[in-house]
Write a structure and sequence with these properties.
The protein is mostly helical. The chain is built from 17 helices and no strands. The longest helix has 31 residues.
Length: 325
Amino acid sequence: MSATAPPAPAPRITYGAVLGSPYVARLLGGTLTGRLPNGMAPVAILLWATTSGSSIAFGGLLSALYGLSSSVVQPVKGRLMDRHGQTAVHLPAGVLNSALLVALPLTGPYGGPGLATAIVVAAGLTTPSLEAGLRALWPSVLPEARLRHAAPALDTGTQGLLYIVGPLLVAALASAHHPTVALTVTAVLGLAGTTVVVLAPPSRRWRPTPSADTRHGAARRLNSPGLALLFVSLTGIGFAIGAMNVWSIAMAEHHEHDMLSGIIPAAFSTGSFLGGLVYGSRTWSRTTADRQIIASAAFLAGWLRWQPSPRRSRPPPPSQCPERS
């Protein structure tokens, strides 16, 4: 009586297999390019404001308003995509967002702070929801469940590159040319990436999968106390991370080194990216709450340690020194 041979193990899924699936590389590359303004625009707006004669406080306000308006409108765009499809939402949003970023430098001589604020808010509101759209496309472009399991890890890992490359590119363009050039390049990259995504057949064909009681289920989840607490905590974290852009500009002025305005956010994002890789590759004995408390304490300690010291007043040149009697 012969023993039955054990089934052969399933072949290991690699990121190369995911990228080799039809349309995956195109959609992921287009989404990354189209979302570069998320990492570039806040820094470019802040640099443009300060070089145009505004204070760092006003530039920081504009940068924060761009990120805030971009985030609060995402659920609305999700509903619009459910009703009208991705192309009908992504393409107009990308065109408007790019046009507004290019128009922002014109507010200096013609509109002043009020118009600049309105344009920045409008630009944030028209940011394309490419990341949400990509996640909705995974089931259609990756029918195999094992590939779909690997895709979010690849997606999440590559998103960190936006906040490494973006600030560095803005700082280099602003240092070599002018922040207006950085804003223009930001707009061009955003529109180019969005166009690549919306012209892909999976994005054009996509329609939401009907689900019973979807609206009421979503409302119940949003009313969950645990989810509300998570939103509050993420708001605090987002405030601290957003302040990094303002701090980097202050450090660049303090040390008289323009590239620091991009190097500091990029270094922070690199550390976050590497920390995420380490965190996901290990098995932890502590609870999730304990790990979050330890990570938050380490983040706070690092933030307080590296705050810029007050600028020392330089002694006057000898010609201006008071004569001794």
